[in-house]
Structure formats: C-alpha cells, structure tokens
Amino acid sequence: MKNNEKEKFSLVCPSCKKFELEKKENSFYCNSCNNFYKFKEDFPVLIDFNLESVLIKEHEIYIKKNICKKNKFKEYINNFIYGTSNITKQNVNIFLNYLQKKKIIKF
Predict the structure, then answer these.
(1) What residue spans define the domains of the chain?
(2) Are 30 and 48 in contact (CB under 8 A)?
(3) How far is CA 13 from CA 27, 34, 44, 50, 105, in A?
C-alpha cells in the first residue's frame, strides 16, 4: 500500500455505527462522526470516553497479553513428578490393544 492511500478497516464506529474507520497515525478516525479512537498496547480501544454513560475511564483499561509457549521439558518434569492420570493410562492401553487386534501395529 502506498503512503498516500488511506487504509480502511472493517471496524464499526461505536458512536455512529458506520464502517467509516480509518487508521491515522496511532489511532482510528471515524469520517462520519469525527471521533478518534486510540490504541492501547497495539489493540484498538473503540470506546467513546466522552459519553456520560461510559462506566470505564481510559486510564483503567488494561490489556493482559498471554504468551503461551509449550515447554516440553517442563511437561516431562511434571509428568515425572506428578505422574499421569490412571484414566489416560487405561485409554492408551485400550487404544493400543485395538490397534494390535486390527493388526495395524505389532509389539
């Protein structure tokens, strides 16, 4: 996209309910009602804080970022210390027996 082109998004303006939001610098701008909506930690906050009925204030918004990485070593240690459930062991045995009967695998 060229720098002089306007970038459009499929976001609805919470004030006027129109698909008129454009990204301008570090915020979204609604062409219809002329409201700006800021970003908080890279997420758009589409709340018009100027309205009297808004119960939350701008400084009260907190975005929790969950970064989930699977740690195989940690999983191995947890299984070693705490073991695996008996139901899981039973299910694995049932599944392996089924595969053996169908001659899909041999032990």
Answers:
(1) 1-52, 72-101
(2) no
(3) 13, 10, 11, 14, 58
Per-residue pLDDT of the chain (107 residues; tens, 9 = 90+): 344 445 555 788 888 888 878 888 888 888 888 888 888 887 888 887 777 777 777 778 777 777 667 777 777 777 777 777 788 778 878 888 888 887 776 65
DSSP assignment letter at 15 = T
- Using alpha carbons, select from 23, 16, 17 the residue that is nearest to residue 37: 23
The separation between the first and the last C-alpha atoms of the chain, rounded to the nearest angstrom, is: 59
